[in-house]
Amino acid sequence: MILTDNETKVDLLNNEAIAKTIIALLREKPERPVTIGVHGDWGAGKSSILEMIESGLADQDGVLCLKFNGWRFQGFEDAKIALIEGIVTGLLEKRPLLSKAGAAVTDIFRRIDWLKIARHGGGLAFTAMTGIPTAGQIGAVVDTVKGVFADPAKLATKENYDKAVDGVQGLLKPAESKNVPEEIEAFRKAFTGLLKAAGIDQLIVLIDDLDRCLPDTAIETLEAVRLFVFTDRTAFVVAADEAMIEYSVRKHFPELPDTTGPRDYARNYLEKLIQIPFRIPALGETETRIYVTLLLIGAELADDADYAKLIDAARGLLKRPWTTAGLDAQTVRTALGDKASDVQNALTLSDQIGPILASGTQGNPRQIKRFLNTLMLRHQTAQARGFGEEVKLPVLAKLMLAERFMSRLFDQIASAGARSPDGRCADLSGLEAAAADVAETSRRKRGGSKAAVDGDDDKSDAVVKDSAVLAEWKAAEAIRAWACLTPSLAEVDLRPYLFVTKDRKDYFGAASVLGRLAAVVEKLLGSKLAVQAFEGELRQLVPAEAAQVFEELRGRVMGSDAFETAPPGIDGVAVLVRAHPTLQPNLLDLLEALPANRCGPWPASGWEGVIKEGESVARFERLLKTWSTSKGSFLKTTAAAALRTRGNRR
């Protein structure tokens, strides 16, 4: 089961209300030019709302709806001209009647040609004083037109070719002055005449995916919209994330000051162009649960007619989402009849993971779809590999929420589960208990119970010190909220779930090879003060085990690829080598492999009592001499100082 992420006319989000409101606003005064913004994060459903607007206007007489996707014109030299030509070309394609209005069509294309020439001459300004193009500028555009008509794909006849070249050559004569504002106003009048000739009462242009464009493309498209803003009977609906457009403004106009009064210039620029903004609201918990149910059942029933009945029932619930918990089994049975049994698994899954998704995806439809696709693919992979019975979808969904939105938490849980003989994370039990206590205390306070006021006097005075990891988790509100989600994970064997998430990271690599030594490695990744206490324990390791632990630590140190400060594990390496002096050559191998030009001062000091055997000491001093001439200034200085100190001791 794969959920497609294409825009759709089928409304599962109750966004049809926004589309209907925009249509009513557009048609209220069709002669009035207006620009409407449909705003929302990526994946919020902006493209689908444009589809609904286009569908809702399809049968209205005198209305022509054109769509323009800015992203598809990303590689074009001039997105501004692409939009203008796209609108005019769309008019000609959708209104064959214009073929009889030869003069109006010729006039509008002549004016577009003028805009092209102006663009080639430097952004609608030929010379600072007169605005008159040079012969070279006209010649360059003529060459461009020749190149276009030389393309066999254009199927241009020799007659058309000559007419085109003659037309551009005669468009602007060196002695003829063209005033830019007057010419733009003339273009608007010509465009209005074209609409009248086409019998169009209102032209509505839908612009999508503008927030996916590079800044220059986005701004050029908006500048083209500005050209039409005061053209009667023309309306624009622009779907874009405001934050991305504001970013484009700041990148395109880097010299603008950051702010002007309470708002910055980027926001003012957008609000000048977008007269009426609509922001798509995020889905709440009930809306998310209904959406997930419809997605999962829709994947099973596809185009079944009874599915439309279920959508209608869901829309009824979405009118007042605060009064319902979602689509229950009875509603599904009433809508689907005999087919209800076919979608029981989808309904059960929706009940299990709906609350989790509502909590983790912040009500973003695209994130919900991507999450569901990844969840189902991983579960199917587990089934194909023969351990699908051990992977429960609600557990997998909860772990994936941590993986997606709290990656550090997931890494900590996964590492602990991979090391544990029973696949459990011991700290999860403490986290879930603490989260439940916090939730219960909050509930009591809201209820005003005496227990909440007086405190929990019945609790034991015994205090068990938390691990550093558990203390970190308890301090984070987002992690506590995640821990409150059902099901509980404290008693779950996490290994099947970690195996199915290996597409991201293999948590079993070190654990499976090291076995019980994995816990030793984790201890040695701690702070300098903490690892000092493990020296006695490390002496209990046999040489082969110590070498195995050293290699794992070496891999962690070099794998960090950040050497300005001592990387995690280097203090553990020092304690391990002090406990097992036979590892001194291994330590020198590690130090010699460091990129000296990227290191801070730490490699040159702190090895007293660690590197102490004759050959290893001599080898380290040779390394200090090499570092003292390296390009890394901090390491160079520290290495030179260490050499002087060693010389003074002799």
Q: Could you explain the architecture of this structure?
A:
This protein has 650 residues and is mainly alpha-helical. It folds into three domains: 16-95 and 200-279, 3-Layer(aba) Sandwich (Rossmann fold); 285-455 and 465-500, no CATH class; 516-649. Helix content is 59%, strand content 5%. The protein has 31 helices and seven strands. The longest helix has 22 residues, at 426-447. Residues 121-158, 160-165, 167-177 and 455-463 have low confidence and may be disordered.
User: Helix segment count?
Assistant: 31
Number of strands: 7
Gyration radius, in Å = 34 Å
Cα separation of the termini: 75 Å
Q: Characterize the main sheet.
A: 5 strands, parallel
Which percent band covers the strand fraction? 5-15%
Instruction: Supply the number of structural domains.
Output: 3
**What class do helices, strands and sheet pairing give?**
mainly alpha
The shape is flat
The percent range for helix content is 55-70%
Overall pLDDT: 76
| Uncertain residue segments | 121-158, 160-165, 167-177, 455-463
Please give the order of strands in the largest beta sheet: 2-3-4-1-7
Protein name: Kap P-loop domain-containing protein
Domain KAP NTPase: 16-380
InterPro entries: KAP_P-loop (IPR011646), NTPase_KAP_P-loop (IPR052754), P-loop_NTPase (IPR027417), QatA (IPR049673)
Pfam family, one: KAP_NTPase
Provide the fold topology.
Layout: H1 16-28, E1 34-39, H2 46-57, E2 63-69, H3 79-94, H4 102-120, H5 135-150, H6 158-169, H7 180-197, E3 202-208, H8 215-228, E4 234-239, H9 242-252, E5 259-260, E6 263-264, H10 265-273, E7 276-279, H11 285-301, H12 305-318, H13 329-336, H14 344-360, H15 365-385, H16 393-405, H17 407-419, H18 426-447, H19 450-454, H20 468-475, H21 477-484, H22 495-500, H23 508-514, H24 517-524, H25 528-532, H26 535-538, H27 543-560, H28 570-579, H29 584-593, H30 614-627, H31 633-649
Parallel strand pairs: 1-4, 1-7, 2-3, 3-4
Antiparallel strand pairs: 5-6
Helix pairs in contact: 1-2, 3-4, 3-8, 4-7, 5-6, 8-9, 9-10, 11-12, 11-14, 12-13, 14-16, 15-16, 16-17, 18-20, 18-21, 24-27, 27-28, 29-30, 30-31
Protein name: Kap P-loop domain-containing protein
Pfam families: KAP_NTPase
Domain KAP NTPase: 16-380
